[in-house]
Structure formats: C-alpha cells, structure tokens
C-alpha cells in the first residue's frame, strides 16, 4: 500500500510550533500554503517554524504551494463586510473584483463567493459598479473566491506573483505545486514550460480539478501532472451540489483506470471550524475517500483558520488510519484465500 499523504493548510490558526508539532505527531505528513492569501517571502517566519516543528517530530513533510493561477477572488477588505440577505452590495467599488469580471456580469447573473457560501444576483452594472442583490448573506472576509456560473473567462495560467513565488520555491523547501482550475492539457503544458524556464522542474505537479472543463478533459491532461486534486470547494460551484459526489466518483474512476494518484480535499471536517468534534457524515467522508483509494487527503480552512486545528488533524489522521486498517485486513484475507 502506498503511503497516504495527509495534509493540513498552513494559516494563522496553526502557525505555531507546538500546534504544528502536535499535528505532525497526529499523522500529518504534508502541508499546503495557499498563495492566494500570502507570498512566499511574507511566509518566511511561518515556514521556519514549520521546518523546526517537522524536524522535532521527525517528519519530512511534503510542502505544496497552491498558486493563484486563473482563480477569481475578491480583493483585500479593510474589515469584514456583513452581507444582509435581501440587501444590496456593490462589487467593483465596495468590494474589489478582478478586471476580467466586467463583461461577464449580465443582469440576473448569479455570483458565488467563498466556495458558494454567499450568493449574489446582478441587478445592474453602472460603470465600475456591479450592483448586486444579496440572496444568501453573512460575514464576508478578504480574498474569498468568486465564481460566475456559466461564464467562461480567459485568464493566464499563472500570475506575475505566482512566477516570483516559483522562482523562490527551492529556497523555501517547497516540494510541489498545486495548480488551480486546470482546464485541459494545454494549461499543464504551459505550466511545465514555465517551471522548466524557472529551473523548478523537480517540483511535483498537483492538478486541481475545479470546474467542468477540467472534468471533461481529465484523461487528456493526466500525462502532464503527477497527482490529481479533487478540489471540491470550487468544483461544487460548477454544478448543483447534489451532483458533486457523482462527479467526484467519476474523477476517481478515471484516476483508478489510469493509475493516477488523486487527493480528495475541502470541507472534510468543516464543522470543526467551530466545534471540537466532527459530524458522523464528515468522518464517513474521510473514511470512504481513503477506503476507495485516495492517495492523499487535505484539510483546508479547518487548520488554516479554524478554532480546533490540532483536534481536526487528530480526527482526520485517525479516521484515515481506520480505513487503511480495513484495507490491510481485506488485502490479507484475499491473500489467504489464494
Ligand atoms: N496564508 C494565509 N494567511 C492568512 N490567512 C489564510 C492563509 N491561508 C488561509 N487563510 C485563511 O483561511 C481560510 C481558508 O483557507 P483556504 O481553504 O486555503 O482558503 P480559500 O478557501 O480562501 O481558498 C482563507 O479563506 C483565509 O481566510
Ligand atoms: C482547495 C480548494 O481550493 P481553494 O482553497 O483555492 O478554494 C478547493 O476549491 O477545494
């Protein structure tokens, strides 16, 4: 059995040597840094703590950088904005949005923020003002994802800051790249070309499947990456949510058929953002991801910004181990029968 990769996401909630050490002791053997929120140079202190914690826990972790890539996000907010259901919010002025959004926001267009947690509907566009009605509200914080269902926006594979981060990757001990919104083989060929030019070819490539283009072109893009990531946060925005498990299964089936390692990620212990114990359905999700053959699993907000990063990692790794034990038992039984 291949070694299971168990990742946490580095963020303010766990950027502490003792917490990270506990997470490594629990079974974490990889960490992801989301460069949509920081650059490598800003993260120097966190990475030093991370390397020290890993050494003290005697773990040699994989260290992945998640690029900005072609992902759309709102800008930095000075303070959280409370979006009131039925109220009006102006994108482009109150909340900064990427320039590419203009031209893709007809009246009636739905806009999903923060992996679909918030839902807006465009009422009118006046110059730079995209006036929206809030359908699902709540407390919105900086740099959350923005999705425009049914709209196709051409974006470059990497941003200038991604290139700068890639240039520094080796110096910071990075082992792999998570490339967001991979749409087809061309995206990965372009990424590989840039990686070659920046002398960063030793980095493993994790292709995040986050929209239906990526799902449709999966078999053709497999040869150009080392791992597939079923990035359910954004992927869930691309379909009615009840179809997400079916699409996850479809991706898994293709990865199994082509012997491509794949990771299952996002909201695996979402309730532990605020609670010290998970729900029954969350532990089942983790168990079956591992039992069905995932090569890796990853916590995102739970360790980056949640209230219980240590406890979340402990539940995560223990549940994964219980699935691995069943797999070992089944393999041993099968061997005995032959
Ligand atoms: N390096 C970081 N610095 C500050 N905040 C971070 C960092 N990484 C993650 N976060 C916070 O944790 C949240 C969840 O992390 P993640 O799942 O990686 O982000 P997102 O859902 O925005 O893609 C982020 O939205 C952000 O508020
Ligand atoms: C992990 C994911 O990516 P991000 O954190 O960039 O939304 C996801 O969409 O599932």
Give a description of the structure.
By secondary structure, the chain is of the alpha/beta class. It has two domains: 5-70 and 158-337, TIM Barrel, CATH 3.20.20.60; 81-147, PK beta-barrel domain-like (M1 Pyruvate Kinase, Domain 3, Beta Barrel). Helix content is 35%, strand content 21%. The protein contains eleven helices and 15 strands. The chain has helices spanning 17-26, 44-56, 160-168, 185-197, 212-216, 218-221, 232-235, 244-257, 280-291, 301-304, 309-337; strands at 5-10, 30-34, 62-66, 81-83, 88-91, 110-113, 118-126, 129-136, 138-140, 146-147, 176-179, 204-209, 227-231, 262-265, 296-298. It has an eight-stranded parallel barrel with strand order 1-2-3-11-12-13-14-15. Strands 5-8-7-6-10 form a five-stranded antiparallel β-sheet, with no helix packed on it. Strand 1, helix 1 and strand 2 (30-34) form a beta-alpha-beta unit. The chain is globular and about 70 Å long. The two termini are 19 Å apart. The model has no long low-confidence stretch (mean pLDDT 96). The protein binds adenosine-5'-diphosphate (ADP) and phosphoenolpyruvate. Residues 34, 36, 66, 115, 145, 180, 210, 231-234, 265-266, 300 line the site of phosphoenolpyruvate. Residues 2-312 form the Pyruvate kinase barrel domain. InterPro entries: Pyr_Knase (IPR001697), Pyrv/PenolPyrv_kinase-like_dom (IPR015813), Pyrv_kinase-like_dom_sf (IPR040442), Pyrv_Knase-like_insert_dom_sf (IPR011037), Pyrv_Knase_brl (IPR015793), Pyrv_Knase_insert_dom_sf (IPR015806).
